[in-house]
Amino acid sequence: MRTSGKLSISTAEAKSVVLSNHARSRLTVARNARISPPVAQPKPDDWTRWNDYGIGLLLQGDLKGAEAAFTNVTRIVPDNPDGWVNIGRARLIEGNLAGARQVLDRALSLSPNLARARYFYSRILRSEGDYDGALAHLSAVIRQYPKDRVVRNDAGRILFLQKKYAEAVKEFEVVLAIDPEDVQAHYNLMLCFNGLGKQDRALEHEKRYLRFKADEAAQSITGPYRATHPEDNNERQGIHEHLSSPPSRKGGA
Fold first, then answer.
1. Tens of pLDDT along 86-119?
2. 8 A C-beta contact, residue 186 and residue 208
3. 179 and 138 both lie in a single domain
4. Model confidence at 20: pLDDT above 70
5. Last residue of a domain, one of 80, 114, 143
6. Which of 91, 105, 190, 200 has the fewest CB atoms within 10 Å, i.e. the most exposed one?
7. Which residues contact 253 (CB under 8 A, 6 or more apart)?
8. Alpha-carbon distance 209 to 45, whole Å?
9. pTM of the model
């Protein structure tokens, strides 16, 4: 018992008064306690969003970010070859040929006739000097997409490097049948006809190449204008962002 003047209270009551007056409390926590945040489990359909995100990063030149996004695709759908192919694309641009071969091998094991995988694999072999192997993969792609001028141009270029000029000419002429203004085809035909000793044909494609190629002098001409007109310069970029939109019109467009 405690006695304070005329007031007598018990020890338990005294403790209660102290807690109520000062609102004190003590909480015991275990030492080195760690609280892990919940980990979101990806859904099967999430791979498309990661894939699109990775392609956007790839187009912007963020190769490491793109590879990380495509790696998430392979974790969500490991049996889908798209993620492996796109990792290969990023590594190929980076110059990591061994790494690109590794993931493209995985893609081809999942889908042996996948044209995308075969095309990028051909670029690895071409960089390594295996022209016959690269042409074998490109031929498989051409059988599926005979009007793909990018693949045809690559095949023609490899034939040119092998000094098979007549065969290369056939490939480039197919390209021009698809797109008569294809700059790469005209340039390589100029080289092929020079190799064949047909100077008149070479001169013909040289003129067309000079006509259709990008005007490099235009960059210096338009430079000062673009420097003072950022909105127009933004529109000129292949990948750009619109920070604002015009106000909506009331009563219809």
1. 999 999 999 999 999 999 999 999 999 999 999 9
2. yes
3. no
4. no
5. 143
6. 200
7. none
8. 46
9. 0.72
